[in-house]
Amino acid sequence: xxxxxxxxxxxxxxxxxxxxxxxxxxxxxxxxxxxxxxxxxxxxxxxxxxxxxxxxxxxxxxxxxxxxxxxxxxxxxxxxxxxxxxxxxxxxxxxxxxxxxxxxxxxxxxxxxxxxxxxxxxxxxxxxxxxxxxxx
Length: 136
Description:
Elements: H1 6-14, E1 19-26, H2 32-38, E2 47-50, E3 55-59, E4 64-69, H3 77-85, E5 90-97, H4 101-115, E6 118-121, E7 129-130
Antiparallel strand pairs: 1-5, 1-6, 2-3, 3-4, 4-5, 6-7
């Protein structure tokens, strides 16, 4: 049996993934199939959907960019008030690996340019918040 070198173990530990999570909210009604049609910066075969889950996956270099229906995440009255004020129709939980930030944000920008809305943080005030103009 071949021994694993100590530096190989250290190298593997260095490559731990850090997944970033946001919410994409838009006043446009949309679904995963439509989101998929908006992605132009990634080869078509790297984009897949699961319509029954309203989920889109975009395979990037380190991991995948995931858009998953996130409406059920919001039950707090203050959150619901914010959603009503902004006239939000569609909400997605968006996650990607930190190493893929530039490619992921390019895809998100393509979607926001077509569907409007914003990408926001899972914080009390949803800040920081990004639009198509500020995401890159």
